[in-house]
Automatic annotation (TrEMBL):
PANTHER family: HTH-TYPE TRANSCRIPTIONAL REGULATOR YJDC, TRANSCRIPTIONAL REGULATORY PROTEIN. Residues 29-48 bind DNA. This is TetR family transcriptional regulator. The keyword DNA-binding applies. Residues 6-66 form the HTH tetR-type domain. The keyword DNA-binding applies. It comes from Nocardia panacis. It comes from the Bacteria. InterPro entries: Homeodomain-like_sf (IPR009057), HTH_TetR (IPR001647).
Length: 192
């Protein structure tokens, strides 16, 4: 019988996320992740052959985790409720997952996106395409045919909530529920 590995890719990515949230993406090195996870450095290199692969893995996993709920929210009926739920997901998910939210707020460039493998870049592009298509579909359901209206929708349900999350991250004493409700109210008012 084979035994379960003590240090999985997910446990190593969890350690990397903690480092990134606490000290920034520059702190995520192979040796720092090994130390944070209590793993031999060989375990890190076995799962991630280099730092670029590790950073790409962290970014892509975080986006996947976030998008699961966000994309589901965009499909809710009626479409006006979908817009509110999507914006709510950004703030609520970020409050419930502050470490992952810190990774997303840093952005892919902080995680060396320019140096990722072609495969990692393709996965990131597919994630972005999936998001863009889902926002476009919501725009269609809302009757937004003008590209400017679709851009406003993206600003409303993605950028506005992230601005609120950034503001909340700078002020940890702020009420996350109040932030979430304020964003939802703005989206409801804007959508009509």
């Amino acid at each position: 019988m084979s035994r379960k590995p003590a240090h999985t890719a997910d446990s190593l990515l969890d350690a990397a996320a903690d480092l990134a949230a606490a000290e920034g993406a520059a702190a995520v090195t192979m040796s720092a992740v090994a130390a944070a996870a209590g793993a031999p450095s060989g375990s890190v290199y076995y799962r991630f052959p280099d730092r670029s692969t590790l950073l790409a893995g962290l970014w892509l996993r975080t986006v996947e985790r976030f998008q699961e709920g966000f994309l589901a929210a965009l499909r809710v009926d009626p479409p006006r409720q979908a817009a509110v739920r999507a914006a709510h997901h950004v703030t609520d998910w970020s409050a419930r997952h502050p470490t992952d939210a810190a990774v997303l707020l840093a952005g892919p460039a902080a995680f060396g996106a320019a140096q990722w493998s072609a495969e990692s870049k393709q996965v990131a592009a597919a994630q972005q395409t999936r998001l863009d298509e889902a926002v476009r579909e919501l725009g269609d359901r809302l009757g937004y045919r003008d590209p400017a209206d679709r851009e406003r929708l993206a600003l409303l349900i993605i950028e506005l909530p992230y601005a609120a999350v950034r503001r909340h991250a700078r002020n940890p004493g702020a009420d996350p529920a109040g932030t979430t409700e304020a964003v939802a109210r703005i989206v409801r008012d804007a959508i009509g």
